[in-house]
Automatic annotation (TrEMBL):
<keyword id="KW-0479">Metal-binding</keyword>
<dbReference type="InterPro" id="IPR027443">
    <property type="entry name" value="IPNS-like_sf"/>
</dbReference>
<keyword id="KW-0560">Oxidoreductase</keyword>
<dbReference type="InterPro" id="IPR005123">
    <property type="entry name" value="Oxoglu/Fe-dep_dioxygenase_dom"/>
</dbReference>
<dbReference type="GO" id="GO:0046872">
    <property type="term" value="F:metal ion binding"/>
</dbReference>
<dbReference type="GO" id="GO:0016491">
    <property type="term" value="F:oxidoreductase activity"/>
</dbReference>
<dbReference type="InterPro" id="IPR044861">
    <property type="entry name" value="IPNS-like_FE2OG_OXY"/>
</dbReference>
<dbReference type="Pfam" id="PF14226">
    <property type="entry name" value="DIOX_N"/>
</dbReference>
<dbReference type="InterPro" id="IPR026992">
    <property type="entry name" value="DIOX_N"/>
</dbReference>
<comment type="similarity">
    <text>Belongs to the iron/ascorbate-dependent oxidoreductase family.</text>
</comment>
<feature type="domain" description="Fe2OG dioxygenase">
    <location>
        <begin position="192"/>
        <end position="298"/>
    </location>
</feature>
<dbReference type="Pfam" id="PF03171">
    <property type="entry name" value="2OG-FeII_Oxy"/>
</dbReference>
<keyword id="KW-0408">Iron</keyword>
<protein>
    <recommendedName>
        <fullName>Fe2OG dioxygenase domain-containing protein</fullName>
    </recommendedName>
</protein>
């Protein structure tokens, strides 16, 4: 059997397609079924860093309710959206860990760009009801309660329903990623007890201005956690993925699927054997576009330490170890801190 390092050396630098993986059997107790799924996931992670999943288990109704709520939220006048951060009355960068509303151009994912042409609403784990645990005392630098709009009935519940469904999917995926890395299926179990997942409702207005490569929906970037579960609005092509030959490959929405893309935490766990692939979104379609990423990482107090089988004399260690929380925090600060002077 090839080693992980060996497989990575033969990765496809010029992928043109993003694979679609069927999760219909994800809960099967048959180890062979799990093995086949894990092998497909391993190929996608080593070659592309992106894949679509179908039969993902998030009910269409949950998606539609969340989309409806997102549209209502973003349709409000800017003053109301700013008030959606009631205790602070300020923009996202001054709230605990950037939760809440982020206006157009308040973030900048590509340091060569001049702001992302999107607005967003971000939140993290919160119990849906009293039966769920809330063990977040170890969140460290990422600690901070969610902030909700006060005047949108059903918004919090709708968004949290989606959040919990996506976290359930993420928790089914972690064992497959572990198997894909030739590790026991339970490898990430004690590292993902607290659902260190941030969910973001995103709105990209249609970009009608003359082409300016420095202002696009979201500039070229990698995600920061282990993986992202992304829902894209149907019928609107905007997302593009960069292969190692520096070609942008379209990742259009495909009916009934979600996009899964790897982030920097998995690149660190795997010494870049799993790819945290650069991507961007540009909305030149003449209509509004919405998307919903949920970024799922290991618990914030967990150290990102490379898996031994991902290091070899030919592939020496590429990253210093850092906790997941410190890593995400540093990326948040870089993304939202870029224009701090202007907004003071
Ligand atoms: O809107 C999209 O399709 C992509 C969003 C994204 O890449 C992100 O929020 O990190
Ligand atoms: Fe992203």
């Amino acid at each position: 059997m090839s080693t992980l390092v060996g497989r990575a050396e033969h990765a496809d630098p010029g992928f043109k397609d993003i694979p679609i993986i069927d999760l219909v059997n994800i809960s099967s107790s048959d180890p062979n079924v799990q093995k086949v799924l894990a092998a497909d996931i391993r190929d996608a992670c080593i070659n592309v860093g992106f894949f679509y999943v179908k039969n993902h288990g998030i009910p269409e109704e949950t998606i539609q309710t969340t989309l409806e709520m997102a549209k209502r939220f973003f349709a409000q006048p800017i003053e109301s959206k700013m008030e959606a951060i009631p205790s602070l009355q300020v923009e996202i960068r001054k709230t605990p860990n950037f939760k809440g509303y982020s206006p157009l151009l308040s973030g900048n994912n590509d340091p060569d760009n001049a702001g992302d042409l999107q607005e967003g609403f971000e939140f993290g784990w919160e119990p849906l009801d009293a039966t769920q645990r809330n063990d977040h005392e170890k969140d460290g630098v990422m600690a901070g309660a969610n902030i909700w709009p006060s005047d949108l009935p059903g918004f919090r519940e709708g968004a949290l329903h989606y959040y919990h469904a996506a976290v359930r999917l993420g928790k089914l995926l972690f064992p497959l990623f572990a198997l894909a890395l030739d590790l026991p299926a339970t490898y990430f179990e004690d590292k993902t007890r607290n659902s260190a997942a941030l969910m973001k409702l995103l709105h990209y207005p249609p970009q009608t201005t003359p082409a300016d490569d420095r202002v696009i929906g979201i500039g070229a970037h990698t995600d920061w956690e282990c993986f992202t579960i992304l829902w894209q609005e149907p019928g609107i092509q905007a997302l593009q993925v960069l292969n190692s030959k520096k070609q942008w490959i379209n990742a259009p929405p495909i009916q009934g699927t979600l996009v899964i893309n790897l982030g920097d935490q998995f690149a660190r766990w795997t010494n870049d054997i799993f790819k945290s692939t650069v991507h961007r979104a540009i909305n030149r379609n003449g209509v509004r576009r919405h998307s919903i990423p949920l970024f799922f990482g290991t618990d914030y107090d967990v150290k990102l330490e490379p898996i031994p089988s991902c290091i070899s004399p030919e592939r020496p260690l590429r990253y210093e170890s850092i906790t997941a929380g410190e890593y995400v925090k540093s990326r948040l600060q870089a993304t939202y801190g870029y224009s701090q002077e202007v907004h003071k």
